């Protein structure tokens, strides 16, 4: 017993072990946030999370194996604890009023599009493109719900390795960025009024920042409508993760009997839903809410920097072009299928 105790690091020792990795991740995240403030980058819709993971991957390639070994505990802490905390705090960006404001039209189009994109990701990704389950679901979640944030929220449920997360983030970023420029250019040809266009944008574009850029490029009212519908998609993140958690737990148990699985309802998903409710009730002071949103942005940037740092370009190359092909297919479902669905729903009386 004494020998076991002696080999276990003390709390100060564990904290000290985290410091090298946290220092590296913090440096990458701070640089990414500074780059995101540059007008050309900040207004492009790419977002600080994508910049953080790209910069993390770049810096990682020039670091020695010794540095990677020393940074591993802090990077792992950022990928797990900080990531889950950041995803939970993301709930403070939503209220039940946002969900109600979208109306039956917004709820219907979001539910149908999310189901169609995830179903396509699973079938095309795993059956036709022969991708592994994790990559297909990560790309699908990023396309269906809210880009990089959805990819990160899904990672703890799947327990996917960092390089798969990096692949998914890169894929959804490419096509989400295309939408920022494509959608406003197509607006005169779509036959939609600004509110209908905003509904189309909010239900089909990947990232929240990209939705704002594509919506407000047409008009302020289109941008407002797009954000409301988009936030409804974000609100669906929690129930979708619960469903995926159940399916993954069942699959893992069938494939590996006796294997311990993740909780059916992860704690950070419960916290996410609870913070949505807390924000809806207005019990959180405005100053505290603003501070927590800033903290959330920092935590997510740190997590993305850590994911980029832990990813290996060699592993991403091994995946080949198939994730990008899947992203392109899902982009087609979102743009063409989403436009057709929105036009059809516009004919209904609600």
TrEMBL record:
**InterPro entries, per the entry:** UPF0324_pro (IPR018383), UPF0324_YeiH-like (IPR004630)
Keyword field contains Membrane: yes
Q: Name one GO cellular component term.
A: plasma membrane
Top-level taxon in the UniProt lineage: Bacteria
What keywords are annotated for this sequence in UniProt? Cell membrane, Membrane, Transmembrane, Transmembrane helix
Q: Which residues are listed as membrane-spanning?
A: 15-35, 41-60, 99-124, 136-153, 165-186, 231-249, 261-284, 290-311, 323-341
Q: Does the keyword Membrane apply?
A: yes
Q: Where in the cell is it found?
A: Cell membrane
The membrane topology of this protein is:
Multi-pass membrane protein
The record, for Pfam families, names: Cons_hypoth698
Task: Return the NCBIfam families for the record.
Answer: YeiH family putative sulfate export transporter (TIGR00698)
Q: Which family does it belong to?
A: Belongs to the UPF0324 family.
Q: What is this protein called?
A: YeiH family putative sulfate export transporter
State the species of origin: Solimonas marina
